[in-house]
Amino acid sequence: MALVRLLFRYVLAAALLALLAARPAAANDHTVPTFAAACHAVTGIEATARDMQARGQWICNNQSWRSDVPVVWLRFEAASWQDGKLPQQFFSRIARFTSITFHAIDANGQARVKRLTQADGVPFPAGPVFQLPLPEITAETTVLLARIEAPHSVPLLTEARITHDPGKAEWSQIEMMLLAFVVGMLVLPLLFDISFFLVLRERFVVIHAAMVSAMMIYVLTAGGLASAFVTLPLAFLAVVSPLSYAIGAGLSMLFLATFLERGAQSRVMRNLTIATGWFTIAAPGFFAFQFDATQPFDDRGYFLTFIPCIAVISAAVIEAVMRGSRSARYIAVAWMPIIIASIERLLRGFGWHVGPSSLDQMIYVAVGIEVVVISLAIADRFLALRRERDAALTEAKMLEQISTRDSLTGLMNRRAIEARFDELVAQGFDTFALVDLDRFKAINDLHGHQVGDAALIACASAIRATGDRDSIAVRLGGEEFVVLLRGPRSLERAEALRQAIPMRIAKEVPGLDLPVTASMGVIVMAEATRHKMAFAEFYARADALMYEAKASGRNRLAYERLTVFTSAPPERGRGRAA
């Protein structure tokens, strides 16, 4: 339910961002008549408008479109706009070109010519399009020829239109709102990625954030929404749009290789996925710059170099699904629409399929679907990884307890106290009491080791019975125990613990012939935080005191006070308590 509420808030916030982003496009709310070219032709750089009028080899269907030629001509017939207003504006998909020269030719042969360069193109928020003003079109105009020099994109040619309205094109307000909605949806995963990364330092989260950023730039520039807020140079938009898509596609493959669970990919497929990801960033990214020298082949090269990406990413997802990957199922749902839309765009790029620029809405919707589903996949993976880490931490704590706890009594063992001794001394545990049960071997000999173990457990219960934060009980091994104490009257408290041992053992281990007493050697340190003695030194001193207590008749305490001095110390105090 929490995930559902999160997704609801996610979509609601995206809708609000979409409404805000779509406001500048509010004027474009009705369909405007537009007219496509009736015919097209390709020529060398030397061909003129007179040549095309006299003997041009025109192709008057939507076939054989090419952008790998010096010049492409478009022919707009007056018959298509006679019943409407006279066209004033040319618009088409944003792409690189050198110049577009318009020839408005009247029935009497008079021609009005206007040559415009790429720098004259003005992008506007009506889709991924730019516009250029036409020469004067009159009622006598019979044909309009557009000479496009060094085009870098087939859609620049196939999607070219003329219209009477200089501020509007094909995309409706609803389509622009959909585009803005997708942008809004792309903003929020970045916040998710930041939140996830703060908790879970996984590389795939960073890659996904970079991938979303690239796709956001693509939607803003290729969709024309950026032009609603700022006027950017046409050459910049023509490069940034395909470049960001190439980077996003390459990052998606790197994301796939790092996001899938261990074992979801074979080593060969994983290496191939990563290599293809970098290839997709480099190769289509290079062609996206559309240099003048690459004009004859960069359009086709851009789309051709995407084919390995589509093939490998499809194979990688299929393999991961067949291996039972849960994450791969999310990715398959998320990426299937965008793969289909990319293939359609690829066919248009090759000129094998002709359609309006509004078909790009398929890619933008697919990007929106991808964002929602992949965000859910990351959330699901986040929960899975968190469960795995919690389980690992629990197991580590259990192993730590096993390695630092005495299995019989549950007290800390010698390994644990030696590791923490300096820290505990610094925390003020200034009294070191070594406890040893008197004549414990006789218990094992007379009653067996089971009774002896019960006596040890009862002894442990007695020395930790206070349960406060100012005493720590440790079993060193055999019948030896250590109690560290801090605070006032520590010596008296140690003696009280020693005296409690026989009573606790007598209560919990019935049938013993004699009471089980304990001897104790205690060292009380002054200014404990300044003491530099190691655990072994304290133990040796306390052990000597404990044997002194046993030699004095057992069932008693022997103690020594240690003080740190900057000059020669006086004689140390020693004593016994019985």
TrEMBL record:
Biological processes annotated in GO: cell adhesion involved in single-species biofilm formation; negative regulation of bacterial-type flagellum-dependent cell motility
Protein EC: 2.7.7.65
The keyword Acetylation is assigned to this record: no
Gene3D superfamilies cross-referenced by the UniProt entry: 3.30.70.270
One protein family per Pfam: 7TMR-DISM_7TM
Keyword Signal among record annotations: yes
Residues in the signal sequence: 1-27
Reactions listed under catalytic activity: 2 GTP = 3',3'-c-di-GMP + 2 diphosphate
Transmembrane segments: 176-200, 212-236, 242-260, 272-289, 301-318, 330-350, 362-379
Any single Gene Ontology cellular-component annotation: plasma membrane
Keyword annotations from UniProtKB, A to Z: Membrane, Signal, Transmembrane, Transmembrane helix
Alphabetized GO MF terms: diguanylate cyclase activity
Domain GGDEF: 428-562
Cited PROSITE patterns: GGDEF
InterPro entries: 7TMR_DISM_rcpt_extracell_dom1, Diguanylate_Cyclase, GGDEF_dom, Nucleotide_cyclase, Rev_trsase/Diguanyl_cyclase
PANTHER family in UniProt: DIGUANYLATE CYCLASE DGCM-RELATED, REGULATORY COMPONENTS OF SENSORY TRANSDUCTION SYSTEM
Protein's UniProt name: diguanylate cyclase
Protein species of origin: Erythrobacter ramosus
Higher taxonomy: Bacteria, Pseudomonadati, Pseudomonadota, Alphaproteobacteria, Sphingomonadales
